């Protein structure tokens, strides 16, 4: 019971209102043969960034966020501005080279984006059949508490800003493989490992990480995917309250498709 309470209280600060109950998750399964910069799309070379590109405004990005109709396997809700602000504070770090990672984990965008928008999603738990046994109904309740919750951030930049921001995330993934501290020395939920996640093929270039965190002595893992499409970065930071977070592939595909 104590372990459960610690897990919930810590991720109340880390995920910050992604769900009504706090979340945590765990997995350390990255393959050693993945690229050091994280699981990537594997493209030989990314399309060159347009130096004359104009950033999209927050209003324009909001219209590009994935909707409920476009992501039917998820529950999609708008993320309030204070949720992103609080998430940024919760994921902040004093280690400068790791800040691009902490920024995209909160949906705030690496570096200085000109436009920002965010939403939050959760995978839909399966409902038990009307004639389900008591055991199946109990399992359905347990499964409902284990959904993967994802903060989706869209961040747009002028010129080559998006390409530079993406590069900074990849550099941070390598430099911060051994983890990084929080902004406050006593913070729990600090990152203890950044390992390659399952390779992602989306947008102009993409990278994925399994981000391990220490929650009251228990090592758990979250999932992070960052995709660049033109002058926009899309980030997906996933957590789960009772099991390993799953990389939200269908959500990533739906969001990147909407970016054009």
How would you describe what is shown here?
The structure is a single chain. Helix 4 packs across helix 6 (161-175). It contains 7 helices and 8 strands; from the N terminus they run H-E-H-E-H-H-E-H-E-H-E-E-E-E-H. The chain has one domain (24-258): Protein Transport Mog1p, Chain A (3-Layer(aba) Sandwich). The longest helix has 15 residues, at 161-175. With 260 residues, it is of the alpha+beta class.
Please give a quick description of this structure.
It contains 7 helices and 8 strands; from the N terminus they run H-E-H-E-H-H-E-H-E-H-E-E-E-E-H. With 260 residues, it is α+β, with helices and mostly antiparallel strands. Strands 1, 2, 3, 4, 5, 6, 7 and 8 form an 8-stranded antiparallel beta sheet that branches.
Describe the sheet with the most strands: 8 strands, antiparallel
Give the mean pLDDT.
79
The CATH C-level class name: Alpha Beta
Helix content: 25-40%
Distance between the termini: 47 Å
Global geometry: globular
How many structural domains? 1
Report strand %.
15-25%
- Element-level helix/strand string: HEHEHHEHEHEEEEH
Provide the structure class: alpha+beta
Quickly count the helices: 7
Rg measurement, Å: 18 Å
Second CATH tier, the architecture? 3-Layer(aba) Sandwich
User: What is the CATH topology?
Assistant: Protein Transport Mog1p, Chain A
Q: How many β-strand stretches?
A: 8
